Amino acid sequence: MKTTIPTEHAEQCAVIKWFDLQFPGLKGRLAAIPNGGQRHIAVAAKLKAEGVRKGFPDMMLLKPMGGYFGLFVELKRVKGGRLSPEQEDWLIWLATQGFKTAVCKGADEARETIKAYLGVRQ
Predict the structure, then answer these.
(1) What are the distances in angstroms from CA 65 to CA 26, 70, 99, 104?
(2) E-only strand ranges, the chain
(3) Is the dihedral of CA 44, 8, 19, 100 positive or negative?
(4) Which are the contacts of 12, defined by CB distance < 8 A and separation ≥ 6?
(5) Whole-angstrom Cα distance, residue 76 to residue 113?
(6) Nearest Cα to 61, choosing from 122, 18, 5, 106?
(7) Which residues have C-beta within 8 Å of that of residue 78, sequence separation ≥ 6?
(8) In a 3-state reduction of DSSP, which class is residue 74?
(9) Which long-range contacts (CB under 8 A, 24 or more apart) does 115-122 make?
(10) Angle at 70 between CA 66 and CA 73, to 5 degrees
(11) Residues 30, 16: contact at Cβ < 8 Å?
């Protein structure tokens, strides 16, 4: 029997839902940046004009912790998926600006990364 690998969309929805339930005091503060996905060319052009930038990380938590200004997460599927040059560039640049950055393979890894960032012990 073949195991289905969740989509990045499904994984990200799971992380956001978990975060809002797990951290009610920060509910809504883990925000998604809708840069990816397939769009009609007119919509893509409009978003680009509004400032959407290729490669910007998927999620951000702008809560200072542990000497960082916030956390940016680039979420990938558990299997497959790789960083684009633009994504790598953004993550490096954000890290040099004082943000914690992470590439997470799946929702479980993202949850563990967020908990570690917030200082939550198991």
Answers:
(1) 13, 7, 10, 19
(2) 30-32, 59-61, 71-76, 100-105
(3) negative
(4) 32, 58, 59, 75, 107
(5) 13
(6) 18
(7) 5, 6, 11, 105, 106
(8) strand
(9) 117/61, 117/65, 117/66, 117/68, 117/71, 118/23, 118/63, 118/65, 119/65, 119/66
(10) 115
(11) yes
What lies within 8 Å, CB to CB, of 99 at 6+ separation is 68, 69, 70, 71, 72
Give the pairing type, strands 71-76 and 100-105: parallel
Taking only the tens of pLDDT, the chain with its 122 residues reads 677 889 999 999 999 999 999 999 999 999 998 876 677 888 888 888 988 899 999 999 999 999 999 999 999 999 988 999 999 999 999 999 999 999 999 999 999 999 999 999 86
Residue found under tokens 């908990």: 115
CATH 3.40.1350.10 fits 8-118, yes or no: yes
